[in-house]
Design goal:
- A hairpin with a 6-residue loop joins strand 2 and strand 3.
- The protein has 20 helices and twelve strands.
- The strands form two sheets. Strands 5, 6, 7, 8, 9, 10, 11 and 12 form an eight-stranded mixed sheet that branches.
- By secondary structure, it is of the alpha/beta class.
- It binds S-adenosylmethionine.
- S-adenosylmethionine (SAM) is lined by residues 242, 265-271, 288-291, 294, 313-315, 330, 332.
Length: 453
């Protein structure tokens, strides 16, 4: 009979799988909770322990390294995972120290054998001798940026990149990094359900989103999958920032015939489904994705709405130049704007990831502009505020083309404050309660010649 309680064992299994198998916590945890039959307080404990450990992992590793007097990379993977879970309970949860140490030692015995018990016990006791604030003082030198990164559980390179995107304002950076309460947002799919109907279904704990007329925020939690509107595809889980991106494309003024819209990086199809509901009569939607399984998800997301869903490489277009009046280009990116929902991502990403994506993003944007009719618009979007994949991409492409004009994106998000100095628009969790979505609006000038096919 195991001496380890099920919630802690479940957290261990997920934390271990995230490191060893590159599992995604937001998929692995619900599965593991179901398999372990956990619900109520036990599920809540396992969820906090799992997400918290993953979110703070790199910083916990610094603490463990000091307490163990060795680099965490030198530890066996099971021991490393146990110590991270134990350190998180000691420093960030209201678990009594003796319970955190004892349960972690038993977990170490179960997953790594009796020989590690003494070591795990000694390391965890050393960690528990100081509070989290004490550890921050001990580990962080005077450097402000490093201290903010460490105190908020961020890699230094990422804190630096976010500071750049915030114009170097370290006071705001500290607020931004401290913001990590993910609230589930729903979209009432236009033409299928009104927001009021969705609000009525979502119950008293739900609120209308402040920025998107389609948004409902489940501020008191709850299972969105239990709502009939979500089950029947009349509503879906979608961050309010993503809704604003789709709405911005539909709101842009174009004075050319609006026959075809395109979503050229469409998978899994959240924005495509909203765009479909916003199409004027007589207008079609083409939704393209490079990967067949992502294109399949687009079809599922559209739930029977008629659209041309194609598997295509949007850097080598299969459509004619100037084919579309409006193009959404929601490029593959680092996803650094959705860290609240993916706790492990900050430690998985590498400093040069944004650089590596930059070239593809430039290529996709150039092709999207070619695919847009003169007078039409492209909305370029990322779920990342990293300047290398936002402003740098848009400015580089705009600088190289006389047939394109960068327009102010902010008026397309009416009522949304603090979007930055423009013409780019940047949403932030701490300012808007959305993911950190970025968008830019580019117009093909009306008298520009069609690019050669
Ligand atoms: C950020 S996601 C798009 C999210 C989507 N707009 C939504 O709201 O559900 C980027 C997508 O671009 C696709 N992609 C990557 N490279 C591509 C390419 N060369 N051509 C077309 N799609 C591509 C990826 O497969 C991925 O599904």
């Amino acid at each position: 009979m195991s001496k380890v309680d099920r919630p802690r064992r479940t957290s261990y299994d997920v934390v271990f799988a995230v490191e060893q198998d590159n599992a995604y916590a937001n998929l692995a945890l619900p599965r593991a909770l179901g398999e372990a039959g956990l619900s109520g307080n036990d599920a809540a404990f396992a969820t906090e322990l799992t997400y918290g450990t993953l979110r703070w992992q790199g910083v916990l590793d610094e603490v463990i390294a000091v307490a163990a007097r060795r680099d965490v990379g030198a530890l066996d993977a099971p021991v490393r995972a146990v110590l991270r879970l134990g350190a998180y309970q000691l420093l960030h949860m209201r678990v009594p120290a003796h319970a955190a140490v004892h349960s972690s030692v038993e977990l170490a015995r179960e997953v790594a054998g009796p020989r590690v018990v003494g070591f795990a016990n000694a390391v965890l006791r050393a960690i528990g001798r100081q509070s989290w604030a004490g550890w921050v003082d001990r580990l962080a030198p005077e450097d402000d940026l490093r201290r903010i990164a460490l105190a908020n559980g961020y890699p230094l390179w990422l804190a630096a990149a976010l500071a750049d995107a915030l114009g170097g304002n370290l006071t705001e950076l500290a607020i931004a990094l401290g913001e990590d309460r993910p609230v589930t947002h729903l979209v009432a799919r236009p033409g299928r359900l009104s927001r009021d109907e969705l609000l009525a279904q979502a119950g008293p704990g739900a609120e209308a989103g402040p920025w998107s007329p389609l948004a409902v925020r489940m501020t008191s939690g709850g299972d969105p999958g239990a709502l009939p509107a979500v089950r029947t595809g009349r509503a879906a889980v979608q961050d309010e920032g993503s809704q604003l991106v789709a709405l911005a494309l539909a709101r842009a003024a174009v004075d050319i015939p609006d026959r075809w819209w395109a979503d050229l990086c469409a998978g899994p199809g959240g924005k495509a489904a909203v765009l479909h509901g916003l199409l004027p009569a007589g207008t079609g939607l083409l939704a393209a994705d490079l990967h067949p399984h992502r294109a399949r998800l687009v079809r599922e997301s559209l739930r029977g709405d008629a659209a041309a869903v194609v598997v295509a490489d949007s850097t080598r277009p299969a459509w004619r130049p100037g084919a579309f009046s409006r193009v959404l280009l929601d490029v593959p990116c680092t996803g650094l704007g959705a860290l609240r929902r993916r706790p492990e991502v900050r430690w998985r990403r590498q400093p040069d990831d944004a650089d590596r994506l930059h070239g593809l993003q430039v290529q996709l944007l150039s092709q999207a502009l070619d695919a847009t009719a003169p007078g039409g618009v492209v909305v370029y979007a990322t779920c990342s505020p990293h300047l290398r994949e936002t402003r740098d991409v848009v400015d580089a492409v705009a600088a190289g083309r006389v047939d394109v004009q960068l327009e102010d994106a902010r008026p397309l998000l009416p009522g949304v404050p603090d979007l930055g100095p423009g013409p780019h628009a940047q949403l932030w969790p701490h300012r808007h309660g959305t993911d950190a979505m970025y968008l830019a609006v580019m117009r093909r000038l009306p008298d520009s010649p069609a690019p050669s096919a």
